[in-house]
């Protein structure tokens, strides 16, 4: 049912639910005004996004579109059939950026590139420069690896963003033509369509749901549902990698290529939201739980295997070979956000927070100019870096440049993942200085989170005559907090928290304030005993931030000899000079004396042996997101404690 | 200098040193008569090797040779440019097998396949069915991936084996023609040769040394030296993978593709032996030490990375993703044997023993019909097997079938890696029932090793009038032993052991006996503290055998919940009924009670927390080599101890 009493503009971001959606929550309008994420978004707006067109020019992506449009001559550039998506993701980023305010230069870039995309489209709506130029127009012959529908998906997402953000329809027209073409070709047996098939890389599914939301055309939603449900029936050879081993509705854990799995699950959540499909919802909830309990790194990173960018087995969570693709972190945020809307549960915001501050944000350098495709939790002493896309050193751009524009689009649209509304009020999922509105309600948040734990929320707009509930997520990591609301004060022992939500219902007046103070004492974290990779280790965390040691802060030896003393207190030290201003955590440790065992590194186990002495050393831990911004060297998140 | 006083036949196996070689030791003649390895070799002789021609027929390898010979029509079969080597390795295995005794059937198979190889050779000596049939005869255009010289190397090795074992020259003629062709094409700048280049996969180097030994032609040795030294100069793009990042003489640790690295190092040892090149010897010794201390799994397995089959960083030794290719174990044995001859040191025999009994032997099933390409040290509960060559389940044959015939050739020639002689006497490196001879000396060994520790050595032939030294390797793992020789008895406290060798010098008479009793108490082993993957764990070992738990022996729960109690004694139980007869080790453990932590598997570290109670469980450990011979399921070598 449309919300008749709204005085706020609808949110312009991703996942604008249809009027008919069965979501528990709806995205709230939001504007980020200051603080941690504002700084990161400024770098995105002023460095990363503006540099996009130049990089897409150098890498040949725009050249390929010009070739397909007949507006240039030469060879196709790039090694992959999905290079067009770099352009589409950049367009999506630019669109969300334009939603925040006009920019003549950015608008000109967008207009120019949208025209190029439109010109490259074939008369019947098909568009993929690789297949048009390299494969002689041979379409849909290699659904497993061809990425044609994947490319269509990113085009559609970009077009929806462009339309929502600017009201302009040129790109949406291109996207609809392509979607209509796909709809005319693909369908189940008996539908009379030419191909009963799916794409080896999900993405078109959630894009089609968004296109349905933007246009109201139900057949896009149906097509998305068809694609989701045809996975797992052997159409692509039955491999887990491309999500074809088992139907989603029957799956018991996430598997295969991480980004493929997560985009498919985002679509499942979208479909459950839009259609009320309870079985799909149950599958998505089951798989989310299985993933978080058994296949998620501490950073929120996903995907344990380097080869095939795959999920590993349950509890297989290596540190030095963690893949944790930046795109997988982004896909995880997109999926969890849809789950939060669908269910109203706070835990999805917990994982989003952890992922944003750690596994996601590490993917871009502090200056917005260099990137990580993989996000390991450890770089060893003596590491020989392979270079290339999978390097553990930041790179200006990748041969497979999926991650950088993906980071850009998430950062540019980040305000849309922060708060929701329902008929009962407003829910704050993430603590970011800004303004959040749902219907007649508007609340301002001010905070220096995650450096400080105080979040002040001030009611700006409210219906005068009826109570509503302001819901604040108490983070899963938080052990101590206090909250004041007028005369009332609570702490973690007596606050009315249910399933992660601190709910305050009252008849509010403009200017009413609620102040939440989250305890940010640094803490040591251990893994599930089945996570072999972190046995006997602890990680330093503070608030939502995972910390790590870097070699550059620990001269005089390597990191692999260091042992953390868990009995000594952790100290917090804010360092405005360091890495753009970070709070470091200082811990006590020692360098192990490892006796020379000759040529064989294995020795009799001596469980009663006293801990080896060694030189004391002060450990300086920095937030994981800020690693690899100084000189190359070793890095560790998990530290041995004995 | 030729050994004028020899009354024994020269050993027929690999690495028959040239008269000019500067080796400290020379291979001894040997015949395996009974016991553990005899059984494995019987399976090899009666199942694996006889099935080879049929498998090479089904996989198309022989068909390709017939195509190249113009004796058949059809398409090339197989996906790799090195499929010919499966045939060559099988021929080498068959040749070593024929050296042990005649077999009409096997001889007929060998003759038939040798004729086929000869017929496929081109008039100028070139031979590679992939390039002849698929690449239109376009030679040496892709040295990085083409494997042309690698294929030549295996052909040469097979031909040397065929000649040494049977005295027949047909295959050696083919090999020499190919070697002469290569020598006419490849050479350093200024040599007037057409190509200054190396092969992306070393193998031809050590083969050319062997061809020099077999023919006395010095130019083959020089060509081998040229190839070894041209690695590391960027001829193949400078990548570590194909041993081109750094010259071997400057390298500080093993790196890149494990088999490539190890074959290259075997050639370096060969060259140092034949030429007295001290720098090359120093490099080989340095790299062996670096490899064993930082990059070797407990099983002797080598290569930490699944993608690229590479060595990892120092101390990066994962269990579930250990690659430990069967071929790398074989290459390691080949290299270490050459190092043992070159230096006379016992530690090389230590690593050979460990590798043979564990990382190598796991590569073939007990029935000799199924294989492992990768040899992980752990298969997790809930493992989703990817299938294909890299499966952790045994496979009948591989798409890339390098390992099975490689296992066959090592087993068939195993007697050549057991004992050596020098002017002072005989050295027993491995304890295998059989007869060992060097010059006028012959000794019989009888043992039920590794199940029992008693090894009885009886002098059968000896010069009557002069003393000589019988040297017995005291294994690196051995903490207690006793030795009796006539009236004299020692144990580990007073035995004359220097650097791993127990040396007994006397004037021997036929019938003199020395009895060594190696203590085989099962033991718990820990890793170097820097091996993160095994922190807080112990492995069960007994003698040279690494043990593991398999799911099938532990019903009632998974293996990843199990904790070993290191304070309780280990018990030995011989089980003649199990897995062809094995000694199991029974240990005390418990199943951990892991409290439900909700959806997030990480929790506050509580170092003072008491160990969690849990159900007691008797653990039955089997030798690692015998795993994966019953039903599929989890497996663990390293067991948590807290």
From TrEMBL, chains A, B:
Residues 522-640 form the Non-reducing end beta-L-arabinofuranosidase-like GH127 C-terminal domain. PANTHER family: DUF1680 DOMAIN PROTEIN (AFU_ORTHOLOGUE AFUA_1G08910). It comes from Streptomyces longisporus. This is Glycoside hydrolase family 127 protein. The lineage of its organism: Bacteria, Bacillati, Actinomycetota, Actinomycetes, Kitasatosporales. Residues 427-518 form the Non-reducing end beta-L-arabinofuranosidase-like GH127 middle domain. Pfam families: Beta-AFase-like_GH127_cat, Glyco_hydro127C, Glyco_hydro127M. Keywords: Hydrolase. One of its GO terms (molecular function) is hydrolase activity. Residues 32-414 form the Non-reducing end beta-L-arabinofuranosidase-like GH127 catalytic domain. Coiled coil: none annotated. The keyword Transmembrane does not apply. InterPro entries: 6-hairpin_glycosidase_sf (IPR008928), Beta-AFase-like (IPR049174), Beta-AFase-like_GH127_C (IPR049049), Beta-AFase-like_GH127_cat (IPR012878), Beta-AFase-like_GH127_middle (IPR049046). It comes from the Bacteria.
């Amino acid at each position: 049912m449309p919300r008749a009493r709204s005085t706020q503009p609808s949110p312009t971001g991703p996942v604008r639910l249809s009027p008919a959606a069965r979501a528990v929550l709806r995205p709230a309008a939001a504007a980020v005004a200051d603080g941690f994420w504002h700084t990161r978004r400024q770098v995105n707006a002023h460095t990363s996004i503006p540099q996009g067109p130049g990089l897409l020019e150098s890498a040949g992506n725009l050249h390929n579109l010009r070739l397909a449009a007949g507006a240039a001559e030469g060879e196709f550039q790039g090694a992959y059939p999905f290079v067009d998506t770099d352009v589409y993701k950049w367009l999506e980023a630019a669109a969300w950026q334009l939603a925040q305010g006009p920019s003549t230069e950015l608008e000109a870039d967008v207009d120019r590139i949208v025209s190029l995309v439109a010109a490259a489209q074939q008369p019947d709506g098909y568009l993929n420069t690789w297949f048009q130029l390299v494969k002689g127009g041979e379409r849909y012959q290699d659904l497993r690896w061809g990425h044609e529908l994947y490319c269509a998906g990113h085009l559609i997402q970009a077009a929806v963003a462009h339309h929502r953000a600017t009201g302009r329809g040129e790109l949406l027209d291109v996207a609809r033509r392509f979607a209509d073409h796909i709809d005319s070709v693909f369908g189940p047996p008996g539908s009379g369509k030419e191909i009963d098939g799916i794409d080896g890389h999900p993405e078109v599914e959630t894009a089609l749901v968004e296109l349905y939301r933007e246009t109201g055309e139900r057949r896009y939603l149906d097509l998305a549902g068809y694609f989701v449900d045809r996975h797992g029936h052997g159409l692509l050879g039955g491999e887990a990698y491309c999500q074809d081993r088992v139907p989603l509705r029957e799956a018991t854990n996430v598997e295969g290529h991480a980004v493929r799995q997560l985009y498919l699950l985002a679509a499942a959540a979208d479909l459950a939201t839009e259609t009320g499909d309870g079985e799909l919802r149950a599958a998505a909830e089951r798989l989310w739980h299985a993933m978080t309990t058994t296949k998620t790194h501490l950073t929120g990173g996903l995907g344990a295997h380097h080869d095939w960018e795959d999920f590993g087995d349950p509890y297989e969570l290596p540190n030095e070979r963690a893949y944790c693709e930046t795109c997988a972190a982004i896909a995880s945020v997109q999926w969890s956000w849809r789950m939060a809307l669908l269910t109203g549960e706070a835990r999805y915001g917990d994982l989003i927070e952890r992922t944003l501050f750690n596994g996601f944000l590490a993917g871009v350098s502090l200056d917005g100019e260099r990137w990580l495709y993989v996000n390991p939790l450890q770089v060893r002493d003596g590491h020989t870096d392979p270079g290339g896309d999978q390097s553990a050193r930041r790179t200006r751009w990748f041969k497979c440049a999926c991650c950088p524009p993906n980071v850009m689009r998430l950062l540019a649209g980040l305000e849309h993942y922060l708060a929701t509304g329902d008929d009962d009020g407003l829910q704050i999922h993430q603590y970011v200085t800004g303004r959040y509105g749902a219907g007649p309600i508007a609340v301002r948040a001010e905070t220096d989170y995650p450096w400080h734990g105080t979040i002040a929320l001030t009611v700006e707009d409210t219906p005068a005559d009826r109570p509503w509930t302001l819901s604040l997520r108490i983070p899963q990591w938080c052990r101590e907090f206090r909250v004041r609301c007028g005369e009332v004060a609570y702490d973690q022992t007596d606050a009315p928290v249910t399933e992660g939500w601190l709910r305050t219902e009252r008849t509010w007046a403009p200017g009413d304030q609620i102040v939440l103070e989250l305890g940010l004492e640094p803490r040591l974290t251990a893994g599930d005993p089945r996570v072999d990779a972190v046995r006997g280790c602890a990680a330093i965390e503070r608030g939502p931030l995972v910390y790590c040691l870097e070699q550059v802060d620990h001269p005089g030896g390597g990191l692999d000899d260091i042992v953390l003393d868990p009995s000594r207190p952790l100290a917090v030290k804010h360092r405005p000079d360091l890495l753009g201003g970070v709070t470091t955590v200082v811990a006590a440790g020692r360098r192990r004396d490892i006796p020379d065992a000759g040529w064989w590194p294995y020795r009799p186990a001596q469980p009663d042996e006293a801990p080896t002495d060694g030189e004391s050393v002060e450990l300086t831990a920095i937030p994981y997101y800020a690693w690899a911004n100084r000189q190359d060297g070793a890095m560790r998140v998990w530290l041995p404690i004995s």
